Amino acid sequence: IAGITQAPTSQILAAGRRMTLRCTQDMRHNAMYWYRQDLGLGLRLIHYSNTAGTTGKGEVPDGYSVSRANTDDFPLTLASAVPSQTSVYFCASSDSGEDTGELFFGEGSRLTVL
Amino acid sequence: QKEVEQNSGPLSVPEGAIASLNCTYSDRGSQSFFWYRQYSGKSPELIMSIYSNGDKEDGRFTAQLNKASQYVSLLIRDSQPSDSATYLCAAGPRDSSYKLIFGSGTRLLVRP
């Protein structure tokens, strides 16, 4: 089934631990994104990549890093997790050009940092 | 700071009525606008995009854009209980169409 796959779907993590959220798409979209969603705050962009090999910072990048080695994969790493990073994380992708903004989302990864 | 504002709701309408969801944005340079629907516990899904002033219709959904007033709306005709969800408005800034700004969403309840 075409789309975006995120893993893990849920994780409880001790503060200070390193964590990588995985995201893979099979739609050959150039652009990929990581958002976090917190109650009352909506979706906030963490990092994005408009094409393989390039990444950019979003609204809330601190404490997170990403890489885009190829078109399909866009992992998000928390180097040293803190409780404020407890959230639901969504990976998304889109075409470039005028269709940018028409995002396809993965099912989300619920992360709890204790 | 660029912002997209929505009333959090809930907006409650009876089945068969028209639901009207509204959104304002602060960045006058925004070029593209989107409505996403998010069911509880699920991921957002795109239902409408609009790029020019005026109305855009797709089935029971109509998006309306007024750039002069910095206002976007979504009308849902013949509302169904299955339309009950949170509706997220998003705006694409002119300086980077990759950096969508999302509102916090309006929760819609359609009463049978």
Low-confidence stretches of chain B: none
Residue ranges of chain A: pLDDT <50 for 5 or more in a row? none
Q: How many angstroms does the end-to-end distance of chain A come to? A: 35 Å
Order of helical and strand elements of chain B:
EEEEEEEEEEE
State the helix count of chain B: 0
Q: What would you call the shape of chain B?
A: globular
Give a count of the beta strands of chain A, DSSP E runs of length 2 or more.
Answer: 11
Q: What's the gyration radius of chain B in Å?
A: 13 Å
User: Which range best describes the helical content of chain A: under 10%, 10-25%, 25-40%, 40-55%, 55-70% or over 70%?
Assistant: under 10%
Residues in helix, % of chain B: under 10%
Largest interface: A-B, 25 and 24 residues
Distance between the termini of chain B: 40 Å
Order of helices and strands of chain A: EEEEEEEEEEE
Radius of gyration of chain A: 13 Å
Q: In a few lines, what is going on in this structure?
A:
Chain A has 114 residues and is mainly beta.
Structural notes for this entry:
- The complex is a heterodimer of chains A (114) and B (112).
- Chain A has 114 residues and is mainly beta.
- Helices cover 0% and strands 51% of the residues of chain A.
- Chain A contains no helices and 11 strands.
- In chain A, the strands form 2 sheets. In chain A, strands 2, 4, 5, 6, 9, 10 and 11 form a 7-stranded mixed beta sheet that branches. In chain A, strands 1-3-8-7 form a 4-stranded antiparallel beta sheet, with no helix packed on it.
- The mean pLDDT of chain A is 94.
- Chain B is mainly beta.
- In chain B, 0% of the residues lie in helices and 53% in strands.
- Chain B has strands at residues 4-5, 11-14, 19-25, 32-38, 45-50, 54-58, 61-66, 71-76, 85-92, 101-102, 106-111.
- In chain B, strands 2, 4, 5, 9, 10 and 11 form a 6-stranded mixed beta sheet that branches. Chain B has a 5-stranded antiparallel beta sheet with strand order 1-3-8-7-6, with no helix packed on it.
- The chains are: A mainly beta (114), B mainly beta (112).
- The interface between A and B is medium-sized, with 25 and 24 residues.
